[in-house]
Prior knowledge:
By secondary structure, the chain is mainly α. About 75% of the residues lie in helices and about 0% in strands. The longest helix is centred in the N-terminal third of the chain and has 29 residues, at about 35-65.
Amino acid sequence: MFATYLIGLREGLEATLVVSILVAFLVKSQRRDRLPQVWAGVGLAVVLSVLFGWLIEYTSTSLLSRYEDRELFEAITSVAAVVFVTWMIFWMRRAARSIAGELRGKLTEALAVGSFAVAGMAFLAVIREGLETALIFYSAAQGAAGDSGPLLALIGGILTAVVLGVLLYASALRINLTKFFTWTGALLILVAAGILKYGVHDFQEAGVLPGLNDLAFDITGVLDPTTWYAALLAGMFNVTPAPSVLETIAWIGYAVPVLLLFLRPARRRPAPPAKTTVTERGADTGAEAEAEAEAAATPQRA
């Protein structure tokens, strides 16, 4: 359940910060009349994200009758989820200093067009996070059929993110979001490695890949699958006591290089002229820090 809570927290906070930037910009620009359109776009994105998650689950449980087809579908969604996770964390790192400025620029253009453009811009800003959340959650929660724990954990993570976002917006909370997203990004890489391992297992179950019974090792005598800590490791990172050779290769082959690439120091580029309170507060250079400053500082200056 920790994995799905982390997914909800990470994705939810990203979406919350995006909405905070949009709302703060409208308040600062004395365009509060456009706030209903922003919330309409956000609401539509949330609804479609929920429908997308339901459609994935419905496809797996109702539309696919053969066991092999279900396993293959789950394997494909697992690989897609890993691609989305990897793209997400590296995109956030690469687009660090420009995301808030880009959002403000797009919203300025949308204001000049009209209400539908504003709603559409807000919708597009949030829908990516929503679709990613639905897909990653489905892949991370596989194997927990009939258990409401992962869903409750996801909702808890999203609610936590919303509370944090509101507190940041109201300047009632200051946290180092750059470090927060770095640590959660590293944990999500381990979660993604587990999802990929599960996907390989599904490919083997579907008969696409060989070696289902070729175990890399068997430590069930040390890591009893019935214990709480074994269940915790399996639920968080899909670490199991008797994985196949291909599963182990997939887990290590993804987790090690991606973690090294993600955690290596980024090349410093010359900072652009200060336009927000990020420089004034000496915040970390990053999209999250800029979003924090924009969301936290703007309401008091409107």
